[in-house]
Amino acid sequence: MVCPLCGTRRARRGCPALGHQICAVCCGTKRLVEIDCPRDCPYLATAREHPAAAIVRRERHDVDLLLHRLRDLNERQSQLFILISTFLLRYESPEFHALVDEDVAEAAAALAGTFETAARGVIYEHRPAALPADRLAQALKTVVAEAGQQGGSAFERDAAVVLRRVEEGARESASDDPANRRAYLDLLARVFKDHGDRGDAAPGAPPESRLIVP
Predict the structure, then answer these.
(1) Which residues of 38-56 are buried (b: 16+ CB within 10 A; e: fewer)?
(2) Low-confidence ranges of the chain (pLDDT < 70)
(3) Angle between the 53-69 and 183-191 helix axes, to the nearest 10 degrees?
(4) 87 with 198: CB under 8 angstroms?
(5) Among 133, 62, 64, which residue's Cα sits nearest to residue 101?
(6) What is the pTM of this model?
(7) Alpha-carbon distances, residue 187 vs 79, 170, 193 (angstroms)
(8) Coil, strand or helix at 14
């Protein structure tokens, strides 16, 4: 029997989602992408328990990139970085504009500038030029402010450092992969894949993460 998905290879795997047999290649490449696999699929369970070497290398590379962003940050700064990262994954633009790395970089840069001037005793709000980035900055400012209530200038300095790291990550990812306007956001989604849709955490509380901070 020929696989109905590719039309070339032999179908040898029973697919519970499609109700018929498909080939191993289509099972592996279309799983959870084009095929809505049920959780009890034995092939899906096996793939999760024993991921391919290429997937393991990609996961390690992703974690290494995020750890580079967390380099020499203290505990509060690391928690704030994770809070901001998971917020970016949950964020929905009010005008349904798909968030891209450039928006993240501009919003983080503007908000970092605001906290940097505030830490020096100067009240001045930096605003991004682009509307999507400006709206993101305003939403992000609320989240960061809630996390640092009564933190004073020390927290403002911490927030500025973390936001500069976020800006740096977004800009470098865009430079490394110019064809993908969401390279940094995709990286965050892969590393924080279980926490991007969590809505039950208390405001300002750092969410759990798979990322282990050294």
Answers:
(1) eeebebbeebeeeeeeeee
(2) 51-56, 194-214
(3) 110
(4) no
(5) 133
(6) 0.66
(7) 18, 10, 9
(8) strand
